[in-house]
């Protein structure tokens, strides 16, 4: 039998291995400027990650504090306002004066 070779099609040129540095892109990617840029970008990403993490913690603390302290206060103030309006309505229906200040001196 005859040895079997490649069948049809165009053959592509062999690619250089990763260990070989050939071409402009490879030379640029190994330059000290690019490596320093990668280092700075990595540092910036680390700082950004830490900042977002601490900001998230601060937002959690502020949000839960608001829910625990401020929301019940708002609800209570709304109830008080509704109660005052109800008393004013009842007073106007019964014909009593609707002044909210102290009674006039006698």
Automatic annotation (TrEMBL):
Transmembrane segments: 58-75
GO BP field: intracellular protein transport
Cellular localization per UniProt: Mitochondrion outer membrane
Cited Pfam families: Tom22
Gene Ontology annotations for the cellular component aspect, listed alphabetically: mitochondrial outer membrane
InterPro entries listed in its UniProt record: Tom22, Tom22_pln
UniProtKB keywords: Membrane, Mitochondrion, Mitochondrion outer membrane, Protein transport, Receptor, Translocation, Transmembrane, Transmembrane helix, Transport
Organism (species): Acacia crassicarpa
Protein's name according to its UniProt entry: Uncharacterized protein
Family the entry assigns: Belongs to the Tom22 family.
Family matches, as PANTHER family: MITOCHONDRIAL IMPORT RECEPTOR SUBUNIT TOM9-2 (PTHR46867:SF4)
Membrane-protein topology: Single-pass membrane protein
UniProt-annotated stretches for the region Disordered: 1-24
